[in-house]
Write a structure and sequence with these properties.
Structural class: mainly beta
Mean pLDDT: 86
Distance between the termini: 17 Å
Shape: globular
Order of helices and strands: HHEEEEEEHHEEEEEEEEEEEEEEEEEE
Largest sheet: 4 strands, antiparallel
Strand order of the largest sheet: 1-2-3-4
Strand content: 35-45%
Length: 383
């Protein structure tokens, strides 16, 4: 999902967030003027009172000694026995496998040599094996073809799609298979059954080509089977209509696709043959980047399901004025699935012009039990 930020650092931040949940739950206050912000114990200014003050930086892990940007792209986590690992995707630096069992002492235990670019990850288990998907958004290139995954899977420089890797033994990652997708794999999502993969190519323009979500049957990971290119609506005069990110409901019967100029609600009761049941086209959303549902009881005691959509305005390419794109909320309870009703929006309480730095909402995670959500806001940190 992510294009920016250091994966190992985000891994450690994520662990820290769980420990300071009561602090993060404090309501945001109005923005301060530059120079008036409170500072934490490291002398770093924080934007709002009560947010971030109890967080502590614990470690940073560099992937090489270049001193340059480490090109992190995505982060996922897995627990094996008593060990915890961060799986850090990169732009052509391979899948970094980091032991974070002791958060203050992260240790890289292996690198899956797969020099492809995007490197988004999802992890699942299948018949005792721990598997992960790893994406190539565009051709793998000569470097990708020459790396371990390219040699193992006989990839050519022109191939694009998703690699499946076995992480059952984290210190010895093994190539499993490759799922070719001509339009590339910007992101992919595994159905809760572990038997299907939905691919999002996130291409901006679809002139002359109908947008689609590629579906693979991965019930036999060594022999993935192409199921279909599931067609989705084309939105005229828009940035694009392709899926950027997909989230499944826990029971696997629904999927929510943030598709740039639209957001779709899919019935995935039969994951091999989904059906579109709802569509959101909101002119206030420039780039629908992610769409996640949350079901909770409202203050009136009524249970509602809300879809939270992040707007990565201008694809983060030109959002230098803060707060950039925000969070947009839609009620999809019951019959509203077919006609989602917008109930509000939230923006970071920052109003400024950044000097060359990007400012807009990006990747969120929802924690229903804690009634919390965390979100990355590019140069404006984590909330």
């Amino acid at each position: 999902m992510s294009r920016a930020g250091h994966p190992a650092l985000r891994a450690l931040l994520a662990l820290g967030l769980a420990a300071v949940a009561p602090v993060l739950a404090a309501p945001a206050v109005s923005a301060h003027q530059a120079g008036d912000l409170p500072t934490n114990t490291r002398g770093v200014q924080v934007e709002t009172e009560g947010e971030g003050m109890a967080m502590e930086f614990v470690a940073n892990l560099q992937y090489n000694d270049s001193g340059e940007a480490q090109n992190g792209s995505d982060i996922e986590f897995m627990r094996l026995g008593k060990k915890e690992y961060a799986l850090a995707g990169t732009l052509r630096e391979g899948l970094q496998i980091i032991d974070i069992t002791t958060p203050r002492k992260p240790k890289r235990v292996a690198v899956y040599d797969c020099a492809i670019s995007q490197g988004d990850i999802q992890v699942w288990t299948r018949r005792g094996r721990v598997l992960a998907s790893y994406t190539a958004d565009g051709s793998v290139g000569a470097a990708g073809a020459a790396s371990q995954c390219g040699r193992d899977l006989d990839l050519s420089a022109d191939d694009a799609g998703t690699v499946i890797v076995d992480l059952t033994k984290p210190r010895k990652p093994q190539s499993v298979s490759f799922l070719p997708v001509g339009a590339g794999s910007h992101n992919m999502t595994i159905h809760p059954s572990g038997k299907y993969l939905y691919n999002s190519n996130s291409d901006l323009l679809t002139a002359g080509v109908s947008p689609f979500i590629t579906i693979y049957d991965i019930s036999a990971p060594t022999k993935p089977r192409f199921v279909q290119d599931f067609g989705i609506p084309f939105v005229p005069t828009s940035l694009g209509s392709e899926s950027h990110d997909i989230t499944f409901s826990a029971d696997g019967t629904r999927a929510y696709s943030a598709a740039l100029s639209q957001t779709l609600v899919l019935d995935t009761t039969d994951p091999a043959d989904p059906e579109i049941i709802g569509q959101i086209i909101d002119p206030a959303v420039n780039v629908a980047h992610q769409a996640d549902p949350i079901t909770m009881k409202d203050s009136d005691g009524v249970e509602r399901t809300i879809l939270v959509v992040t707007d990565e305005r201008a694809g983060a390419a030109a959002s230098v004025e803060c707060p950039g794109g925000g969070l947009h909320l839609y009620d999809i309870t019951g019959d509203l699935e077919t006609a989602p009703a917008k109930i509000g929006a939230w923006f970071a309480p920052v109003f400024t012009i950044q000097d060359g730095a990007v400012c807009t909402s990006h990747v969120l995670r929802i924690y229903p039990r804690q009634k919390l959500m965390t979100i990355a806001w590019y140069a404006q940190g984590v909330r």
